[in-house]
Amino acid sequence: MTDRGCQKRETLESSRNKSLAPIRVFRVLGTILVSSVLVFPVYAKCPISDGATLLVRAAVGDLQVDTTGREPVIDVQIENNSIQETCGKDVVELTGTAPEQFRGPIAWKIVTPKNVNLDLVTMAGNIVVGDVDGNVILRTAGGSVRAGNIRGRAAIITQGGLIKAGNIGGDAELRSQGGTLEVGDIGGDALFRTSAGVVRAGNISGSVDAEGGRTITIGKAGEVKATTNAGDISIGDAARINAKSGGGNITSRRVRGPFQGHTEFGDIRLDSAGAWVEASTGSGNIVVHMAPEDFDGDLHMDLQAGVGDVTVYVPPRLRASIDATVQRPAFQSQQIISDYPPVPKRPAQGLVAPRFYTPTHSESLLNGGGNKIVLHTSLGKITIRKN
Amino acid sequence: MNLNCKEYQHQITLLLYEELPEGAYPGLEAHLQECDDCRSAFESEKAMHSVFANDTTGWDVPSDLLVESRKALADQLDRIERKRPWWRVPTFSVVFTPMRLLESAALIAMGLALGVYVSNQQGRNIAEVVPNSAPDNQVSLIPRNGAISNLQVVNADPATGQVELAGEVSQPLRFRGRMEDDVVRQLLFSALRDPNNPGSRLKAVEVLSQKPTDEPIEEALIGALVYDDDAGVRMRALEGLKKFANEKHVRAAFMYTLQNDQNAGIRIEAIEALTTHNPKDPDLAQKLTEATEKDDNPYIRTKVLQFVGTTK
Question: Beta strand A382-386 with A336-338: parallel, antiparallel or unpaired?
Fold first, then answer.
């Protein structure tokens, strides 16, 4: 448009403004009156390219992100709040401030294509996100977070509330101060933290570091480190396990490498242990089925129960020195039952066998001895079976 | 299978009932290692035995039932013995027949019955001599799988050979029953009181949460929510009580949690439950405003502001 054209247009608009002034005043007054009764949503729109990042900083409100958008555009609709948008090439930033007065729940409804990265923060509210092809960072100071399948990495953090996600392609970090963490399969490493909730995960390609407040359940993983204050730890299949529970059972269907486990109260059960095992329980039973693939590896075992039975299934091929002790035998029942004959012990120099001043103890040598297998219970029974 | 195997299989039965004399253990163990048939018989009988054992847990069997049964068996065998000529008495027979084996078992059972009976008689004597002593079936009070600790000799009389002992017995417990059963409830409540075992408290709360409508159970869950040291247990108790957040006691407990619990996650669950189950309650709105004024969690403060907005 030329300068003359612009001047002409301004003159026309100025004369029109003068004639429409009273109408505008009424319109503004009407808007104020209506908006005090009704609340209209605020809309915003920004173009976004593949691989760009949508950044949301909401002072308050639920974030609902629908990732089924087909256009390379982000549509935003907010109820009961205002918004400020910055549409950049690589980053689209949406910022909302806390309203002075709450007229109802604040909800951000965002529609976006799924091939973007998300970095969403709300200081107070729930977050719901559909399937995303990029990476996601979802944070809330309180509220639940639900996400679909994430192809990239995911960091999901809430100060309280449930976190539930589908499969995550890359590394995953899930933290909630008190809520339950539930996720499908994870393509990378996983980190879980919750002080009062349950941790439930599917198959994890990488390692797992989990600290839970209640039960921890993992389908399959590489190396697993799992700790809970109270509750069971159940790991289907893992390359290596280090598990601790303040009170609860520790079980695994199969551990291919070493296992270390301790529970203050509860059972420890390994259905198939491929390498060395160190397990202890303050009160509870220990059952270990040894199933090593490499008989030349380190296959030592140290199983200690305070009050409870210890049962171990040992393959006859194994070279092992088994040392079993029951500290305080039960009143009248068999304390050590073994499929492998014990090494006979003769008391020195014609003395009688020390029946009363030693705990019930048995030693066996398998194939000439080798891997040290120490089984101990203060009060209970020890059973050694052929596997 | 030869005749020896039959004998060993009979010994297996005795072993599983813990009636096998200790001297017979090594022979049986050695045979089981060599003989596949007997080992498989042992495994199958043991499996059946454990099924029976599991099935009978929770039954209250009178302690003198075993003694009486054995006595009846002994009497019956006595009558058979009287009808038999002296040369057929097992002691004098050199042939091993199935009947002979049965007779041997009966003899062992009789011996045991006699032993228990005599012990009971001795127990009675002590009870008569010592006032306030334990009941007369003292031996049967000590389970075979129990462990004895802190044993003390209370009294020992060299003249009569009588000894009085005191101590503690602990044994594994397995009990099955319905939630309505008093014993089940008492056991679960006692699990809640175990300060050292948060896992057992958590499991007790999980089970009790299935029936939170009963008053004592509701009370127990409120206790767990308010007093338990473990955040997981408190959270689970809160989850169990959530539906009843509009009831007076539960509401009070949730308000307490909101004001006092250090875990923001639990406070958030409490406020969610309170606001969901008490909609548009101006009295609650005021109390929530006061209770959360200084809460450091923005979600909780916002949630209250929103709730207050709905009550105006």
Answer: parallel
By residue count, chain A amounts to: 387
Residue A204 burial by CB count (10 A; 0-12/13-18/19+): exposed, middle or buried?
A: buried
Name the E strands within B128-190.
147-157, 162-170
b/e map B263-275, b = 16+ CB within 10 Å: bbbbbbbbbbbbb
φ, ψ dihedrals at B139, nearest 5°:
-65, -45
Q: Write out residues 94-123 of B within 8 Å (CB-CB) of A.
A: none
Considering only alpha carbons, which residue of chain A is nearest residue B235? A196
Q: Does A36 touch chain B (CB under 8 A)?
A: no
B112 contacts: CB under 8 Å, gap ≥ 6 = B19, B70
State residue B173's pLDDT score: 82
pLDDT at A69: 93
Taking only the tens of pLDDT, chain A with its 387 residues reads 334 443 444 444 444 555 555 666 555 555 444 444 445 678 888 999 999 999 999 988 899 999 999 999 999 998 767 788 899 989 999 998 877 776 667 889 999 999 999 999 998 899 999 999 999 999 999 899 999 999 999 999 998 899 999 999 999 999 998 899 999 999 999 999 999 999 999 999 999 999 999 999 999 999 999 999 999 999 999 999 999 999 999 999 999 999 999 999 999 999 999 999 999 999 999 999 999 989 999 999 999 999 899 999 999 999 999 999 998 777 766 789 999 888 877 666 667 666 555 568 889 999 999 999 999 998 888 999 998
Q: Which of A37, A63, A140, A334 to mutate to test the interface with B (most CBs of B within 10 A)?
A: A334
The answer to whether the beta carbons of residues A150 and A136 sit under 8 Å apart is: yes
Q: Which residue of A has its CA nearest to B195?
A: A247
d(CA A157, CA A142): 9
Question: B291 vs chain A: nearest CA distance in angstroms?
Answer: 17
A25 touches chain B (CB under 8 A): no
- DSSP tally for chain A: helices H, then strands E: 1, 32
- CB contacts of A178 in chain B (<8 Å) are 231, 235, 263-266, 268-269
Quick one: pLDDT band at residue B5, thresholds 50, 70, 90? confident
Predicted local distance difference test score (pLDDT) of residue A11: 43
Letter string b/e over residues B24-34, b meaning 16 or more CB atoms within 10 A of that residue's CB: eeeebeebbee
Specify the pLDDT at position B135: 47
A160 to chain B: closest CA residue: B265
* For testing contact with chain A, the best of B192, B238, B268, B312 (most A CBs within 10 A): B268
CB of A344 within 8 Å of a chain B CB? The answer is: no
**Cβ contact (<8 Å) for B200 and A265?**
yes
Reported pTM? 0.72
Residue in A101, A178, A229 nearest the CB of B266: A178
CATH topology of domain B182-311: Leucine-rich Repeat Variant (1.25.10)
| Closest alpha carbon within chain B to A282 | B197
The answer to whether residues A225 and A240 touch, using CB atoms and an 8 Å cutoff, is no
Residue A21 at interface with chain B, using a CB cutoff of 8 Å: no
Mention every residue, 6+ apart, whose C-beta is less than 8 A from residue B51: none
The residue extents of the domains of chain B are 3-46+61-140, 142-172, 182-311
- In terms of residues, how long is chain B? 312
